[in-house]
Specification:
This is DoxX-like protein. With 154 residues, the protein is an all-alpha fold. It has seven helices and no strands. Helix content is 75%, strand content 0%.
């Protein structure tokens, strides 16, 4: 037996599509804006660590860091690029956890830049990104289920 029109109508309101939920739920749309942003940004920055199109990245590495590395500053930037690409992929897979890693990564970048005493404008921008990453950790705790969670639990 088929459900009545009113039952179908009620079910259609209950089972809203993701797009409808994003357009009507401000915190869910904030989650998706931050999630997408933290996929695109590390992806582009990570790729550019190999190309140096946006800037010459080794210039952003503090001299004390270069002094303790067993390899060149450019090689270090290649390692950083790989980490950023992994961060982007992790954000696609599991933002609940990746957002914490990204926040710690940004904190490391800020410490590196502040220790140089230059590029303080970039460090300040990264403080803003750190705050956004921390906001994403809170939103992800609501909208991204933990690994191993059963359907409907968060």
């Amino acid at each position: 037996m088929s459900a009545s029109w009113s039952e179908k109508h009620q079910l259609s309101h209950i089972r809203a599509t993701t797009a409808e939920r994003v357009s009507t739920d401000p915190s869910l749309s904030a989650f998706w804006i931050l999630r997408i942003g933290f996929v695109v940004l590390p992806l582009l920055m990570g790729l550019d660590k190999f190309a140096n199109v946006m800037t010459y990245w080794p210039d952003y590495l503090a001299p004390w860091v270069v002094a303790i590395l067993p390899f060149s500053a450019q090689t270090a930037m290649h390692v950083v690029g790989v980490v950023e690409l992994v961060a982007a992929a992790s954000m696609i897979i599991k933002p609940r956890y990746a957002s914490y890693v990204l926040a710690l990564w940004l904190l490391g970048i800020i410490i590196n830049l502040v220790s140089m005493g230059i590029f303080l404008d970039v460090a300040l921008r990264d403080v803003g990104l750190l705050v956004a990453a921390l906001a994403l950790t809170r939103l992800a705790s609501k909208y991204d289920k933990p690994w191993g969670a059963k359907h409907g639990t968060r």
